[in-house]
Amino acid sequence: MLSTAPVVAEGVLYGASGDGGFVFALDVATGQELWKESTGGQVIQSLTAMDGLLFGESDSGTLIAADGESGEPVWAFEKGGFSDVRGYTVKDGVVYSAGPNNSVYAHTAP
């Protein structure tokens, strides 16, 4: 079962499953699974694909980035707790996100 809306980039559909906490990639033309990787938690925010990377946020508030071709994790940031405001955006190579205690984070994307 999908836990977020899928995203399509460069002929690949990326999705996240709440059952077991993993992200996956499917070839849009064939439907063949290209890869599947555990995230260590349910991905709760819609995925973003940009510059060959796949971004997401887990239910524990961890921002993650994975290589779009292999699914291998390349970056993670623990926000230090749950935030009532969830979500993130990626713009010009920077990942912005809300954190606990009314904080806002800005990190250079990998």
How would you describe what is shown here?
0% of the residues lie in helices and 52% in strands. With 110 residues, the protein is an all-beta fold. The strands form 3 sheets. Strands 1-2-3-4 form a 4-stranded antiparallel beta sheet, with no helix packed on it. A 4-stranded antiparallel beta sheet has the order 5-6-7-8, with no helix packed on it. It is globular, with a radius of gyration of 13 Å. 22% of the residues are buried. Residues 6-86 form the Pyrrolo-quinoline quinone repeat domain.
Notable features of this structure?
0% helix, four-stranded antiparallel β-sheet, 52% strand
Report low-confidence residues grouped into runs of 5 or more.
Answer: none
Please tally the β strands and state the result: 11
The helix/strand series, from N terminus to C terminus, equals EEEEEEEEEEE
Q: Round the mean pLDDT to the nearest integer and report it.
A: 84
Shape: globular
Give the count of helical stretches. 0
Q: Span from first to last CA?
A: 29 Å
Given the helix and strand composition, which structural class is it?
Answer: mainly beta
Biggest sheet statistics: 4 strands, antiparallel
Radius of gyration: 13 Å
The amount of beta strand, in percent, is over 45%
Please bin the fraction of helical residues. Answer: under 10%
Within the largest sheet, what's the order of strands? Answer: 1-2-3-4
Protein name: Pyrrolo-quinoline quinone repeat domain-containing protein
Domain Pyrrolo-quinoline quinone repeat: 6-86
InterPro entries: PQQ_b-propeller_rpt, PQQ_rpt_dom, Quinoprotein_ADH-like_sf, WD40/YVTN_repeat-like_dom_sf
